[in-house]
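Office hours follow-up: a student asked to see two folded examples consecutively, so here they are.
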Amino acid sequence: MYGITFGVRSLSLYLQSILKSRGVRFEFDVQIKHIKTLENGRIQSLVDQKGISWVAKHYCFCTGAYHGGLFQTLFEEKDISAPSMIAGMRGYWVVLEPKNGDTISVENIILGMGGKPNKVHGKKSLAESLNLVSSEARAHALNVFERCGVDLTKLHSICPTMDFNIMPIYAPDGPKIGVGSGYTFVGIGKCEDGQIMFKEDFNACIFTQELMKLWLFALYGEKNIQKTKISAPEKSCTRSWTWDDHDVFPSLKTEADGFVTFAGGGNTGSTTKCHVEALRALEIIQGGVSQGQTKTYKMDQKMTPDEWEQLQRPLQFQKIKF
């Protein structure tokens, strides 16, 4: 399949240099703990972890699922449902390494990958995923799923969407394969009926990593994978998303008659959609909207072919063997 690969760190440093040349100032290690409002509901200032107030005409929040409840009271006062719409998907990792110094098994898997990153993005019920592997692997996975709290009578109706990259890593101590990050909704936000799949991050981690192993078995053969040392790091990352696949832009007014925008969701990576979110924030700030109005956008509705061409130009496209 076709995919996009680029160095996020290199891209970020490049964009940072451009922004600095245009007068942008970066302030790191600042945590906003409180939003001060006036009696009329307008935003007066932001207060950080040191009690310092930050005042501006316009504010653009791109915290997504990392808002940590900061906006909850603010949104409730304005009768805006954004906090329940902006949810979080937690991503986990699996690493394949040579076992007992034998690099051949890992090298063979990388060879089967065409030496390039592979992408897995699809949706199967747990029953379908279990049918991809041997009876031994199936029995092990069922045991893991049951310990995680999965109702084994609903294997046909539980359909996780898997989204992870399989990356060859040429490390000094030998080749490795990084597999991540498989995403599971872990209750940072709530779905429409108020249900969450996992209340505990620990269970979500084990469940997701076991499901990734099933797909790896199916893709590259159980014998090949079992000849490697499989480790499952506890580290994770979180991506923002929304139930209706929209970016969310509720807007409020500031004391200086400016606007406050909140970006989040959209069901795609922040690097991919930052261009679109920046355009939307500028549209609100420059064009203005009524106080308390909520505007939502779908990427495919607002991005023109010319905009997409401008977005993809600095990225490197390559054909990925899958």
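And the second, which I mentioned at the end of office hours:
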Amino acid sequence: MQKFAITLTLLISLILQSGCQTSPPPFPGSQVLGQSMTYLRASDLPWSIAGNPREQSSKPNNFFAPVFSLVATSNKVISGGELKFQIHSSSDNDGDQITFWWKSSSGKFTYWNSSASSVRWQAPVVTSETIVPIYINASDGRGKVETQVFKISVLKNANADDIITTNVVYTPIVAPAAGNPPVYYPNEDVRIGWNTVNSSQKTASGIMTCLWITANEQVPLTATSEKINVGNLAPNETKQRWTNFYIPKTTVPGYYYIALKNDCDNVVAEANETNNEAFLYIWVRPKGSPRR
């Protein structure tokens, strides 16, 4: 009986130990959010890291891994150029809090927000076109991790091209009250103007500008609400465009952004893919509501 009790105690101890494992350690790398330590793979290949997984909790009924979708400013970039990545949406059917962390085998992460749902990545310097995979991991903190891979084409930097968005303005129907965004109604137009700048020494052909209405400050994955033809831009040329952006009749009242992105078809592999977006903050109110 005593032997059975000892065996049972040992078995329970092993079960408890196995159930208290923390989440997988950070991927090997040269950057870890909130830490200064350096990790290396067995091959001593350095990895750049953004974000960090949380420790697992003991909450029961963990059936589902997180689900998320990703948006990037482009899938190609010039050698040494920079891209922005954003988690577009995420969910966990168990109701767990989701933590993101990222890794790349070359290049480096230059910025990430507190939740690592938005990061910036600088491409490595290359002498020929190179494919660099970016790994995005969503952890529920209880052992379930969803991983996606986003492959970036890093192009040789012959002449660094860049399409820049500047001087984005909109014309309010009525000047807003101090501290408030301009008010518009559903089924109404927003007059928007912007400059598109080709800062390279080569002609940029077939440049388009896309616009969306979105609930947050990021370019959405949904179909473009409006697409404007900027056309060809000579080296160092600037073109100004205006449009009447339509707010759909079915828009639910609330606060929104109008997202604007130059070269939205990614025709140009740019030295910096993070400076061709702009966001205008508006307040959509029921028709007849005060404008101020």
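Two things to take away from it. DSSP finds one helix and 17 strands in the chain. Confidence is low (pLDDT under 50) at residues 1-46.
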